[in-house]
Write a structure and sequence with these properties.
Elements: H1 12-29, H2 33-39, H3 44-52, H4 71-83, H5 91-105, H6 108-120, E1 125-128, E2 144-148, E3 151-161, E4 169-175, E5 185-191, E6 198-203, E7 215-225, H7 237-273, E8 275-276, E9 279-280, H8 285-313, H9 319-343, H10 354-365, H11 372-381
The structure holds flavin-adenine dinucleotide.
Length: 383
């Protein structure tokens, strides 16, 4: 019997899509984990393989090369990725975030230029908001994009950028009017191939997600054609970010709940296999009570997540709801992953045990996509 309920928004179409996602993730992601961790990135060909079977840009309309699906398809793929034990492949940023910036904020020309290549995997996408000196306080980004004839000239530095080492299409958050706060922010799309003055820093060393190419990016008088301004109107960047961030946060919540379910399943299994003092570890009252607490946390988190996914599918998940589900599920994930790791004893601390990776991957979810403190700040504004 499954330890958790089936999501209310799943249907037969999504079940058959899951078969495709499952076989791809088991074949292409699961066996490569150690190699990608050592390389600090996935294989570039992975993107092309995923594009070929139609797993990129699932919720982008077919006329732009996407899958023509919905957020539910993205969620199923994310769940299958987690079940394959992978935290390296940055398809969420590529398909769930970058492609949606282009799709929702781009002009018709921009959509036709970039979406088909994102869907095929010819281009890998990244979103560059965070800077060495500015993370949460996005209105204060220091990177500038100043108009010069029919180009913008970008100067600045970004850090912690997912897909940063491989990205060929980077949505850069920059000030087109440095004298303004939010109203001065615009989104510039940089095609990195041949871009003079664009430089990638090292792939950063992290405590987890070792196979993900989180990188620094540097811009030194990088000239970007004016037609690469997303939406072609200056000063819209902050509004565009605010419109897209709920989906980004919901995607984080989806992966948090999947990770919780998987940690629980693995720990129930392990505690029934391992013995101490002549009996299964599962039989100690402490173990059963801890797992009962975790199962409850997972059930509550999943019910709330499903409600938010349904709202998003109907187009009415607001900024507050997305902030709630992001902080709540990632906070619970940290607790569940920690309790589960404890029940593995010393083995829980060994990197060959998936629970140790679940624990390190869990930690960052309270930080990225807007920290959980910022989520509470957002929620409090609605009170
Ligand atoms: C693995 C990884 C991947 C990432 N991927 C990307 C990516 O693809 N693109 C991208 O742009 N960024 C990415 N980030 C960056 C991430 O979004 C930022 O780290 C995050 O937004 C926090 O910014 P910061 O690190 O500058 O922390 P700061 O903003 O300096 O915050 C430090 C602390 O102060 C708290 N704080 C700040 N302001 C307030 C406030 N008003 N009230 C209360 N507390 C506050 C924060 O909650 C935090 O605890 C990634 C980060 C990591 C670790």
């Amino acid at each position: 019997m499954p330890l958790t309920q089936r999501s209310s928004w799943l249907d037969a179409d999504l079940d058959s899509f899951r078969d495709l996602a499952h076989s791809f993730c088991q074949k292409e992601l699961a066996p490569n984990q150690e190699r990608w961790s050592a390389a600090k990135q996935v294989d570039r060909e992975l993107w092309l393989k995923a594009g070929e079977v139609g797993l990129l840009c699932l919720s982008i309309p077919e006329e732009y090369g996407g899958g023509g699906g919905t957020f539910a398809h993205e969620a199923v793929l994310l769940d299958e990725q987690a079940r394959a034990g992978d935290d390296a492949w940055g398809h969420v940023v590529h398909s769930g975030i970058v492609a949606h910036y282009v799709s929702s904020c781009g002009t018709e020309d921009q959509k036709r230029r970039w979406l088909p290549k994102l869907a095929s995997g010819e281009l890998v996408g990244a979103i560059a908001m965070t800077e060495p000196g500015t993370g949460s306080d996005l209105q204060n980004v220091k990177t500038k994009a100043i108009r010069d004839g029919d180009h913008y000239v970008i100067n600045g530095a970004k850090t912690f950028i997912t897909n940063g080492h491989q990205a060929e299409l980077v949505v850069v958050v920059a000030k087109t009017d440095p004298g303004e706060a939010a109203k001065g922010v615009s989104l510039l799309v940089l095609e990195t191939e041949g871009a003079e003055g664009f430089r990638r820093g090292r792939v950063l060393d992290k405590i987890g997600m070792h196979g993900q190419d989180t990188s620094e990016l540097f811009f030194d008088d990088v000239r970007v054609p004016a037609e690469n301004l997303l939406g072609e109107v200056e000063g819209q960047g902050f509004v565009q970010l605010m419109r897209q961030l709920p989906q980004e946060r919901l995607l984080i919540a989806v992966s948090a709940v999947s990770a919780m379910e998987i940690a629980l399943e693995q720990t129930v299994r392990y505690t029934k296999e391992r013995s101490a003092f002549g009996r299964e570890i599962f039989k100690f009252q402490n173990t059963r009570f801890k797992l009962a607490e975790c199962a409850t946390e997972v059930a509550v988190a999943k019910a709330f997540l499903d409600q938010c996914v349904e709202r998003h599918l109907k187009g009415d998940l607001d900024v507050t709801g997305a902030a709630m589900v992001k902080w709540w599920t990632t906070d619970r994930l940290s607790r569940v992953a920690d309790e589960c790791l404890q029940l593995f004893g010393g083995y829980g601390y060994m990197s060959e045990y998936p629970i140790s990776r679940a624990w390190t991957s869990a930690r960052v979810q309270r930080i990225f996509g807007g920290t959980n403190e910022i989520m509470k700040e957002i929620i409090s504004r609605s009170l």
